[in-house]
């Protein structure tokens, strides 16, 4: 049993790279944000949903809600999203048309379950979610999913096997010393908490290493990444074409063309390459070449690019040894124990 009162580490989840964001939603027995969804069917009639519809409704993400997660060694810690990040995540999710990307207990993808409506709560007591029995903080991402075309999954919902939502996505972890109260808004920070936040900002500025020997190295470009990176990018392009070219963002596709052609890339691009590849490695499965996680990873140069970007940043003095072996797991949805790396992974 985890004693939540003794958990001290807190991380804010943010969008950094173009590849970051939520790419699927999962129906689970225990929602990661500890709020069950409501199931609508003929035994549970609500004013806004008639008895012919089989819909589940509930919060996807709640701002500043502490969510329990586990590191690879089982050590617990908390993560949270700000209202601003949640809005960006929701917009990106809709833009990418991921409404039909649904899994069961973060496992296999299920079919014929899809989002029919979602919105950001503007007022806790004057929101449409009130009709479904919820009173949620401003900034909450709320959604309705139809299960009408998948009777087997609907039966499991009625039997109580699935009670909530748990998003799947890729985010950057930023260490936070702010002590968040449950469902507290960042705008309501105390003077002490605001002082901590200001201190964090100052620390980030002091650690800025964009200058080296008084030279602006961001303007330099490099094309010394070798054939392994190029070949991975080419393979990713080929696999994506076979998959209808539906994987990755436009940035990822452009990056693949650059790498495949051996074009020079900037230091900023190398930073983004390392950031994305080090966090998205958990979704790379060389045995499943149709999975978007695998294809996107290859488009960015795959493991060869991860090694190259790590070494290049070290060479430029932009990556400390401690940063090269982050203690934060690569797993990307709340509550998941990080997958352990294989022995031959570096």
Task: Detail the topology: elements first, then pairings.
Layout: E1 10-14, E2 21-28, E3 38-40, E4 55-61, E5 67-70, E6 76-80, H1 83-95, E7 102-104, E8 109-110, E9 114-120, E10 141-146, H2 151-158, E11 164-170, E12 172-176, H3 191-206, E13 211-212, E14 215-216, E15 221-222, H4 226-242, H5 250-260, E16 265-266, H6 267-280, H7 292-299, H8 302-315, H9 321-324
Parallel strand pairs: 1-6, 2-7
Antiparallel strand pairs: 1-12, 2-11, 3-4, 4-10, 5-6, 7-8, 9-10, 13-14, 15-16
Helix pairs in contact: 4-5, 4-7, 4-8, 6-8
Structure at a glance:
With 346 residues, this protein is α+β, with helices and mostly antiparallel strands.
- Pick out the low-confidence regions: 41-51, 181-186, 204-218, 337-346
Please, what is the average pLDDT?
77
Report the end-to-end length measured between terminal Cα atoms. Answer: 33 Å
Overall strand count: 16
Domains (count) = 2
The geometry reads as: globular
How many DSSP helices?
Answer: 9
Order of strands, main sheet, comes to 5-6-1-12
- As a percent range, the share of strand residues is 15-25%
State Rg: 22 Å
* Residue share in helix: 25-40%
Structural class: alpha+beta
SSE order in H/E notation?
EEEEEEHEEEEHEEHEEEHHEHHHH
Question: What does the largest sheet look like?
Answer: 4 strands, mixed
Structure description:
The chain is an alpha+beta fold. It folds into 2 domains: 9-187, no CATH class; 211-317, no CATH class. Helices cover 30% and strands 20% of the residues. The strands form 5 sheets. The protein has a 4-stranded mixed sheet with strand order 5-6-1-12, with no helix packed on it. Strands 8-7-2-11 form a 4-stranded mixed sheet, covered by helices on one side. It has a 4-stranded antiparallel sheet with strand order 3-4-10-9. It is globular. The chain starts with 9 loop residues before the first strand and ends in a 22-residue tail after the last helix. Residues 41-51, 181-186, 204-218 and 337-346 have low confidence and may be disordered.
């Amino acid at each position: 049993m985890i004693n939540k009162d003794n958990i001290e580490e807190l991380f804010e989840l943010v969008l950094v790279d173009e590849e970051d964001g939520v790419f699927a939603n999962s129906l689970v027995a225990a929602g990661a944000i500890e709020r069950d969804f409501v199931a609508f069917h003929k035994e549970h009639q609500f004013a806004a949903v008639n008895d012919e519809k089989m819909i589940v409704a509930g919060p996807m993400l709640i701002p500043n809600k502490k969510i329990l997660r586990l590191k690879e060694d089982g050590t617990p810690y908390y993560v949270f999203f700000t209202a601003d990040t949640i809005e960006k995540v929701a917009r990106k999710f809709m833009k990418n048309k991921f409404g039909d990307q649904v899994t069961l207990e973060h496992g296999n993808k299920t079919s014929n379950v899809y989002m029919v409506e979602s919105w950001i709560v503007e007022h806790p007591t004057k929101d449409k979610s009130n009709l479904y029995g919820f009173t949620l903080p401003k900034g909450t991402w709320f959604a309705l999913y139809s299960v009408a075309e998948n009777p087997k999954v609907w039966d499991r919902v009625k039997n109580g096997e699935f009670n909530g939502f748990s998003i799947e996505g890729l985010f950057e972890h930023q260490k936070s010393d702010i002590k968040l109260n449950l469902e507290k808004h960042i705008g309501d920070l105390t003077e002490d908490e605001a002082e901590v936040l200001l201190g964090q900002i100052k620390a980030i500025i002091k650690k800025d290493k964009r200058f080296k020997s008084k030279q602006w190295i961001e303007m330099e470009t490099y094309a010394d990444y070798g054939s392994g990176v190029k070949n991975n990018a080419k393979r990713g392009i080929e696999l994506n074409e076979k998959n209808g070219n539906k994987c990755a963002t436009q940035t990822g596709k452009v990056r693949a063309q650059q790498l495949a052609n051996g074009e020079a890339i900037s230091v900023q691009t190398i930073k983004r390459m390392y950031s994305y590849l080090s966090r998205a490695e958990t979704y790379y499965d060389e045995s499943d070449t149709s999975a978007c996680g695998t294809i996107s990873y290859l488009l960015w140069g795959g493991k060869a690019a991860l090694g190259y970007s790590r070494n290049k940043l070290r060479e430029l003095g932009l990556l400390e040894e401690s940063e090269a072996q982050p203690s934060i797991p690569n797993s990307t949805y709340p509550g998941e124990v990080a997958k352990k790396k294989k022995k031959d992974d570096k």
